[in-house]
Amino acid sequence: MSIPPAFERDPTLASLETRVLHCGVDRGRPFVLLEDTVFYPEGGGQPCDLGTVNGVAVLEVQKREGEIRHYLAGAIPEGGASLQLDWIRRFDHMQQHTGQHLLTALAQDRFHWATTAFHLGTTVCDIELDTPAISAAGLDRLEEAVAEAIRARREVSARWVSPEAYGQEEVRSRGLPEGHEGGIRLVEIAGVDLNTCGGTHLRHTGEIETLKLLGTESIRGGTRLFFVAGRRARQRLGDHERRTASFRTLLGAPDEDLLPALQIRLDQLLALDRRCRKLEEELAGALSAALAARPDAFVEAHLEGRDAAFLQRLARMITGIDPAKVVFLTTEQAGQGLFFLGGGEVAALDVAAAGREMVSLLGAKGGGAGKTFQGKAPDLAARAQAVAHLKNLVAPCN
Ligand SMILES: [Zn+2]
Question: Distance from the CA of 239 to the center of ligand 1, in angstroms?
Fold first, then answer.
């Protein structure tokens, strides 16, 4: 069997001196094939490694037709190659991936939950388990079992066996990539797990540091279990601490009172919102009565700090009181001018045509249906002309 790549022989190698065997271009992207490599190509749920080759950034590493293609930010010549891994990224992947081996093994052995999928995400990881639900107590027991195995610093090792010897091994899940030929790589967590895997792993479970279960989600009759391991768990805790500190400042409450304090604020907000709506109704009632009482058929008003819905409601109320009225209302919201033009049942105005004229006069965008037309303008600088024009349309004074 051919010699496995360096990332399989020694996953602790962060750099390597080797040679570029071939330079190619794939859909405009330069790539190289190397004599040996520390770069793990994407596969088995584990994202690829990143880093540099001769100082040029590695953007992606993929297995294509039995070759490992290193896609680079720029072309490099054939010859000597100095490889440098983004070790923080790789070690993070090893922590999540080795953690997943352990989690999968213990979920199966202690709880009979088989793992059907694994995703190593950029922030959290998950496995899919063939159980419809997991209780909070079940999660606690599983997490504790993983913690115990981490504390035991169980050795993690890889070895290759022939296809014939493979049949004699007590391997957990039998599944080889289609068309697999030659030796089979087995990864063992001493006393816990033996599995086929081509990924990169830690030297012992102690290097996982910690594994925290985050929660579950139902998925296709099974359960998706979210987790983070190692440095990610520490970073996540740090993020939570910073966020909680901001909540403490915002709400002026200690940790244990944050939720009730937030609930009180939300209840207050709801009550204020209800009150605000009631006041708006009263305001619309008073305004519509005052505007409808004006003697002219055309009424207009500019209202500060209202929204399009308020203008619309007010106009409908006015034409409801006096169906001969034509109403033109404006407001300013978020640095934009809003207008609403409405005509009552018997109003003497082609509202659609007049609306289009408003659009052109105010440099606005808008549209309407029947006897209503609304629009948005960058500003209301031409409002006075608009009002004069409408007044003339409704009651020509020549
Ligand atoms: Zn693995």
Answer: 28
Ligand 1 centre and the CA of 200: distance in Å? 6
Indicate the pLDDT class of residue 1, thresholds 50, 70 and 90. very low
Q: How confident is the model at residue 176 (pLDDT cuts 50, 70, 90)?
A: low
Q: How far is the CA of 108 from the centre of ligand 1 (A)?
A: 16
Which residues pair with residue 329 across a beta bridge? 301, 340
Nearest to 161, CA basis, from 194, 205, 193, 199: 194
CA atoms within 13 A on the CB side of 149: 28
Nearest to 330 by CA among 286, 295, 366: 366
Ligand 1 centroid from CA 193, angstroms: 11
CA of 76 to the centre of ligand 1 (A): 32
User: Residue 164 class from Cβ within 10 Å (0-12 exposed, 13-18 middle, 19+ buried)?
Assistant: exposed
Contacts of 204 (CB under 8 A, 6+ apart): 153, 154, 155, 156
101 Cα to the center of ligand 1, angstroms: 6
CA of residue 264 to ligand 1 center, whole Å? 48
Write down the pLDDT at residue 46. 87
Across the chain, mean pLDDT equals: 93
Residue 99 Cα to ligand 1 midpoint, Å, equals 9
User: Which whole-number Å values give the CA distances from 373 to 162, 281, 314, in the listed order?
Assistant: 79, 22, 14
Q: From ligand 1's centre to the CA of 229, what distance in Å?
A: 15
Interval between CA 201 and ligand 1 midpoint (Å): 6
160 Cα: distance to centroid of ligand 1 (angstroms)? 14
What separation in Å is there between the alpha carbon of 196 and the centre of ligand 1? 7
